[in-house]
Amino acid sequence: MRLSDGKKIVATVPLGGFKKDVPCVVGALLVVPNFTAAAGDTAVCYTQGHFDGPIKAGDSVSFESEAAYFKNGEFTKTQPTESGDVSQAVGVFIDGGVLLTGGVLTEFVT
Q: Domain of life here (predicted)?
């Protein structure tokens, strides 16, 4: 696992677009854009967080990704449903790895 602050991603702005300083959820990432952009525009973004997996030259990284949950010591794309499990996403699967969002775990299955 390594810190990925400053890794550049060029991606297409998702449906709904971005509004400057208005937080939005993109996959399992909380995004706070510093610009306004329409859906379909190309945006240059920088990731912040911890990344477990490869981002290297030539990878086609995009915001089209899936939420990453953590259960039994493994990352999974299936949301846990058993009592006591953490039900919130802890990151997002990107390019064969998981970008951890670093949020406080507050959502549990009861």
A: Bacteria
What residues have CB less than 8 Å from 57, skipping those under 6 apart? Answer: none
Judge whether 47 and 99 are in contact, CB under 8 Å: yes
Tens digit of pLDDT for each residue in 25-71?
Answer: 665 566 677 788 898 888 877 666 555 555 566 665 555 567 888 88
Q: What is the pLDDT of residue 92?
A: 77
What is the torsional sign of CA 65, 91, 88, 43?
negative
Domain extent listing, the chain: 2-100
3-class DSSP state of 60? coil
Round to whole Å and give the CA distance between 11 and 42. 6
